[in-house]
Amino acid sequence: LKFLVDLLRVNIASTYSHLRFLQGIIEKAKVKGIPIVIDADGLWLISQQPSLIQGYQRAILTPNYMEFSRLYEAMLRDPVDSNDHHGCVLRLSQAMGNLTIVQKGERDLISDGEKVLVCSHEGSSRRCGGQGDLLSGSLGVLAHWAFLAGPEKTNGQNPFLVAAFGACSLTRQCNNQAFQKFGRSMTASDMVSEVGTAFNKLFET
Description:
Blueprint lengths: L3 E2 L10 H17 L3 E3 L2 H8 L10 E3 L3 H12 L8 H11 L4 E4 L4 E4 L4 E4 L11 H19 L9 H24 L5 H5 L2 H9 L2
Parallel strand pairs: 1-2, 2-3, 3-4
Antiparallel strand pairs: 4-5, 5-6
Helix pairs in contact: 2-3, 3-4, 5-6, 6-8
């Protein structure tokens, strides 16, 4: 089984043909049953054409707050309730057919439409440009492993939910370690350099 990871990251200002290309990628992934992580401008495409991914439970969406708000309003025709973040993430996942949603933020909220997980693993006060790429890339790898392992190896939990929590934790751990070394000058590249030690600390000790 080949795994499609984070291909939906083009500039919205690009041509109509690029968006058609992205649509084709999603449609082929669905036909082949390939899990797919959708981030950045791929989320804009989904907000314009929700039916493209609705009901495909092997999709994982990783919106920031602004992207989440756009998706939420497109699907539920209401603004996000700032007093009920957990409920909003749950409802958006349900409205999209119980696919996995990872809302990135001060705390990452993760839902498959049945439950909401909160990742509040310690990071730092600095968020780098490109940090979302690290999250979606690591999520692709962990989702692949979890998908192949199946629920019997994830204590009966949705494998994509487990993978998302792991990827959020890993990204935050990388952020924490890099910030301790570089402080405010930390970049996403510094975070990437911490992946090995962060992974060992979280998952292999």
